[in-house]
Amino acid sequence: MKDQISSTICNNSSADSRVRVKKLVISGMLTALTVALSGFSIPVGASKCFPMQHLANVLAGVFLGPVYGVSMAFCTSFIRNLMGTGSLLAFPGSMAGAFLGAYLFQKTRKLLPAYLGEVVGTGLIGGLLCYPAAIFLMGKEVAVFFFVVPFLMSTLAGTLLAAILLAMLRRLGLFSYFERLINE
Predict the structure, then answer these.
(1) Confidence at residue 12, expressed as pLDDT on a 0 to 100 scale
(2) What is the rounded CA–CA span in Å between residue 130 and residue 128?
(3) pTM higher than 0.70
């Protein structure tokens, strides 16, 4: 009996580590893809709208969960800043959206809350979190809601792209296939 329990524990931890490795690899691939597409941005006011980040946030949130989604958003923002294609404002916006979208999907298992979480997290919460970053870290004098409209425009575009992509995956039966592939 003791050997059977020990064998079950080893098999479960082995399966858990395989899932973690898969999620880490997919997170890295999403980061690389998002950084590679960082040349596609739309200037809106003082910020750059980067819809590919929001597309990746939704995908990571739905398939990988909050920890990997936020980690992917952080790594993407960090690399883009190192390359000079991003700004410090990318951190609070992308990470808040990635967390809220992933958290709401994890709690409801529905896509609409994931989309709304990304939009509210990035557009409203992230836009408001950029205010102190702009004032204290970048030395810019801006109004409290200055970043909300550009962030909302960016996240709406990226979230719409994610919704279209996920609808196509569902229609083709690939959505559940990807979930099984990642979580087995």
Answers:
(1) 63
(2) 5
(3) yes
